[in-house]
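Sequence, structure tokens passed on for absentees:
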Amino acid sequence: SDDDRVYCGNPFPKHEFSLNLEGSWKSFDFGLFFQGIAGNRVYNNIRAYNESGAAIVNFSPKLLNSYSFNPNSDIPRLEWGGNNGNSWTYTDRWLENGSFLKLKTAQIGYALPERIIKKLSLSKCRFSLAAENVFTITKFSGFSPDVNMGGNGISNAENFGFRVYHIGLELNF
């Protein structure tokens, strides 16, 4: 009932921060963008489905250490649809620290010197390499604590934080 509910933390961070570093040296330029948050809790939806036994999906190997197989375990008994509620996915068991520091973007570029671009009838020629989601420092056990909001209003860990690479060529005539 509502009488036994307890406050388990806030999905909204207490602190948000970012740092944008840009610089150049001779014909090279670089940029780093760091982003982070601190002081929030995140519901790890993927962990809930894989470790609760609530859905018939790929189970986590951690369930082999559940109470069903190990009476000294802190993982509840594996049971589908039982009366004990062990397979209930919306519990504080799946809430985790959502704080993180992420190198969101990194890029390096090289512009050809004027003496070369004039021979090519260009006003600018720049090559670049960039990456997104380079690394994340966090205690969150899922893919990324930088999450989307699910349709039911519960934060879930389905934003996988894929790393993306870019190769660029900028030509000005």
Remarks:
- The helical segments are 45-52, 114-119.
- The two ends are 70 Å apart (CA to CA).
